[in-house]
């Protein structure tokens, strides 16, 4: 402060301005702050912000992380069947987040266990990953491996996968670093055999190589606005060592590789005749080994970074009936709620539900076929229902499903 006896000094530390390197004067004349106090104030503000962010986002094992049995119970509310895969997922996810919370304890280095979901289309691979993220309340992102190409080629690059996670975490990097990424159609980036081709396979082995580092753990630079269109922007840096990667794919043809291996291993001995009659079905996915994945087209390094293999089974007719009626997000419950908003009760007869399942099995696309069939049935009903006066109940019969007949309508007096 200015005085008659002394020269101007810093308003905080009282150091005379003649002894400081740099000082700033406020809008109110006569009040100064030195560079040392300004830097210290900036550090305090940063520390406060970081502490607040950590307290809001820190994932604590004691009060938030469900046990494996509780995780499986939560998955049961949304996904029908697949008990074996659910158990593998629940234990792997529980151990993963337990590892995050105890990185500095015990002196034992715990490695990350990413998960590979193998199963036919429409069996619930994506839904399992989504449900896990919802239960754990962590950021979640879905990526399609078929759209990713090697750097330098037209298409998305591997960093695009991480960018989607950061965006879903509202650009909170610390929260994104504890999130879950689901990479769908991972089987489509397998090598297409050993034959040499004139054209380069830019979405195959090269993409597998690019995935290696982020699956294991690396500090990746991510352009916030998307990389190739804005090369001048400042990068965000994301550490992937605590991000859980769940990869999924149908792996069509893998069952033949497994069956061939089992037959070859059992050529000698009493079990030789038994293994000759092995059916090449998706039930063999439970016997998948890393060598089978390498023969399918994965490089050995990638199989090593996906140690947890969770096979999914084909959906039975009973499972499909349950998918239509039992989960919280059951398809029929959704349409019944939509009709309830119009004050109309929607009823599906048992024979109609069984017929829907039969038609879905013929399409061979799993649970996805159920929605398309129900949508076809409900389209004319939901188009006409809002115009009907005094309509009380709409009944979907077997004839409506099979022969596109008109549903039974019940009116109030």
Structure description:
By secondary structure, this protein is α/β, with parallel strands linked by helices. It is built from 16 helices and 12 strands. A 5-stranded parallel β-sheet has the order 4-5-8-3-9, sandwiched between helices. Strand 1 and strand 2 (32-34) form a beta hairpin. It starts with 22 loop residues before the first strand and ends with a strand. The relative contact order is 0.10. The model is unreliable at 52-63 and 194-200 (pLDDT under 50).
Helix content: 40-55%
- Give the N-to-C terminal Cα separation: 88 Å
* Helix and strand composition category: alpha/beta
Poorly predicted residue ranges: 52-63, 194-200
Tally the beta strands.
12
Beta fraction: 5-15%
Largest sheet: 5 strands, parallel
> How are helices and strands ordered from N to C?
EEHHHEHEHHEHEEEHHHHEHHEHHEHE
Instruction: Calculate Rg over CA atoms.
Output: 29 Å
* Oligomeric description of these chains: single chain
Q: Strands across the major sheet, in which order?
A: 4-5-8-3-9
Our count of helices gives 16
Tertiary shape: flat
pLDDT averaged residue by residue: 82
